[in-house]
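The material for today's practical consists of a large collection of protein records. Getting from the letters to the tokens is the skill we practise here. To make this concrete, we reproduce a full record directly below:
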Amino acid sequence: MKEIKISVKDLNLFYGKKQALVNVSLDIPAQRVTALIGPSGCGKSTFLRTLNRMNDLIADITISGEVLIDKSNIYQDRIDVVQLRRKIGMVFQKSNLFPVSIFENVVYGSKLNGIRNKKVLTEIAEKSLRQASIWDEVKDRLDESALSLSGGQQQRVCIARTLAIEPEIVLMDEPASALDPISTAMIEELIHNLKQQYTIVIVTHNMQQAARVSDQTAFFYLGELIEFDRTTTIFTNPTKKQTEDYVTGRFG
């Protein structure tokens, strides 16, 4: 068993009076892909955002419980949230590139972290774009606008930008839901390759995708974690009837 990278204990989250997460506890191992599945509005994206404190940006939110990363509670008062988010990269459903060059997009975070040396930035850009499996497609176009790329290419540049700050954990919120099948397959292959170096947590509404890319799967329903196990177990021999009904398409 891989070491535990993220340990969540009795996590509750309220938007005002509405409870969005109910006593969620699970352990996420290092250098594995963990998929979060469940119907729309079940809490999976909310849960994902608790792992890098993105929910802090929402007004009238209350969170209790613990999220331990490397055994340190990220919700303790003295935590540096900026430092935390350097350790935890995030890739969103829609590519959120800036209207600047491909190169400037990839090195944006590195510049924010104080790196100014052009040679170092060039090395970071190449390494990150190679990791994101897009270097060969863009190496002669680095000065062009990132917005000139196709949707699938833009998403891989977003992944490169995330990797450029050398995170330990990569969160992905429906990273391929807006993409065509070929681009989706490339993102899935990329996820498979990246888990050699990173702990990856992915929200997906696509159960076939969860089955293809993840090592373990968490099934959420109405804010509760119904079942969490190896992906093969969740899809072939779940212990809860609710899980079985969802993965076989009886509801959702």
In short: The chain has one domain: 4-247. The mean pLDDT is 94. Residues 4-247 form a domain with the Rossmann fold fold (CATH 3.40.50.300).
